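Reading group handout, session on sequence-to-structure problems. Before we discuss, look at one worked example. The prompt was deliberately terse, the way you'd type it at a terminal:

> structure Aspartyl/glutamyl-tRNA(Asn/Gln) amidotransferase subunit C

The input record follows.
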Amino acid sequence: MSITIKDVEHVAKLARLELSNQENEQLTEQLNAILKYAEKLNELDTDHVEPTSHPMPLSNVMREDTARESLPLEKVLLNAPDEEDGQIRVPAVLE
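And the output record:
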């Protein structure tokens, strides 16, 4: 597979980029060089390699989520800057 100048012009149009003829040619060469390099991966024997989503093993480091009693309302309201009718009062965000 190779990229043509028409392909570059089409993508540039979709991206709303104005490229000169020299830039079109330069990008065509660069994209083809990238594709040529990527084709080298097809030479690798990957028959016995398991597909992965990440190169390193990942594990969840979060603690177990366990239900427990919440703080008493009076203690929570001690941290509130303002309180009204047992609820935390905050400044209005809508006019």
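Points for discussion. First: The first strand starts at residue 83 and ends at 84. Second: Helices lie at 5-14, 21-39, 73-78.
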